[in-house]
Amino acid sequence: MALDAPLGIVMIRGGMITPDYLRAVQYLSPAFPIGGFAYSQGLEMAISTGLVTDPTSLQDWIASQIQHGSGRADAILIAHARRGDCDELAQLAYALAPSLERDLEMREMGRAFGAQISGLTGADFPALPLPVAIGHATQGLNLPTADILALFLQGFAAQMVSVGVRFIPLGQSAGQAVLADLAPVIFAAAQQASRAEIGEISSSTIGADMASMTHETLEVRIYRT
Fold it and tell me: How far is residue 207 from each of residues 7, 9, 77, 201, measured CA to CA in Å?
């Protein structure tokens, strides 16, 4: 760490942590109060039916979502919302939802995210699905889109790991090991999504989509999705 960095800027390995970077970390942290702890994107169903039972299967599930499923699709939406028509992207996001619960998740978390941003900035924030809301809120941050996407996907993975830790259950150390091993996957996916055209959005995580569709049939549920 350089000791001669300008006041308010910390130099790390030739780069900079700026106020905008810290704001992005705040907005995209699992601790940002938008109710993320209440959603599992079908992972609760996968655990209940024995598809996810240990650290290896949990890591595979999350990696698939990031590389080929909702994580990737949401990252592409964020990238384009940082520079495009958010109203049009919002309609696309809703159309891409594979289940009623996923649609609900995007709407409710997007609404909560917008309310928090409005409270922080004093500006009216439109009702948008979560990925589009994140892109809209970060338009004014002077950060590369790939960095925003990496922080988003890190938070996404951390939330899914939290579900696994609590519901499989796993130990905290095992959960942290899963998250650490996902770092290269997160980094690569963020780089790719930052360059993707909007027409490249797709999903091939059929098991996760089916889990989100059938989750509402569980008689006892901890999570909303």
Answer: 50, 45, 22, 18
